[in-house]
Amino acid sequence: MKSYKKIYSNGCSYMWGHGHNNTDIFHLFDETKDIDISEKMVYEKRTFFNNYDWVRKKFNYPNLVAQHFGLELTDESIYGGSFQRVYRKTMQYIVKEKNISDTIF
């Protein structure tokens, strides 16, 4: 069986984990129900990034898969990302890395 070391993900807000950094829903999920949300949620200049962004990064789909299989994650997904962006960024990654035989896409 082939051994993989890396996982590459790319996509729109679904892959990025939009919503996972919203403290209003933390109580609904076992993974986030015990996080201290006493600090006010503050958004950065008209974006979906906030001071709880670490929660989104930790519990988004690509990171959970990478953690489960013990793989190094490269996640280039972003909210509002188009398919053209996905294709362009993925091709750039492939050209830059050259050896992708140990990477799951």
Question: What features would you highlight for this structure?
Answer:
105 residues, alpha/beta, three-stranded parallel sheet, globular
Kindly state the number of beta strands: 3
Helical residues, percent: 25-40%
The SSE order reads EHHHEHE
How large, in whole angstroms, is the Cα Rg?
A: 16 Å
* Count of helical regions: 4
Q: Which residues form runs of ≥5 with pLDDT under 50?
A: none
Strand content: 5-15%
Distance between the termini: 17 Å
Shape: globular
Strand order of the largest sheet: 2-1-3
Mean pLDDT: 93
Helices, strands, pairings?
Blueprint: E1 6-9, H1 13-16, H2 53-59, H3 61-69, E2 72-75, H4 83-97, E3 103-104
Parallel strand pairs: 1-2, 1-3
Walkthrough of the structure:
The chain has 105 residues and is α/β, with parallel strands linked by helices. 33% of the residues lie in helices and 10% in strands. The protein contains 4 helices and 3 strands; from the N terminus they run E-H-H-H-E-H-E. The protein has helices at residues 13-16, 53-59, 61-69, 83-97, and strands at residues 6-9, 72-75, 103-104. Strands 2-1-3 form a 3-stranded parallel sheet, with helices on one face. The chain is globular, with a radius of gyration of 16 Å.
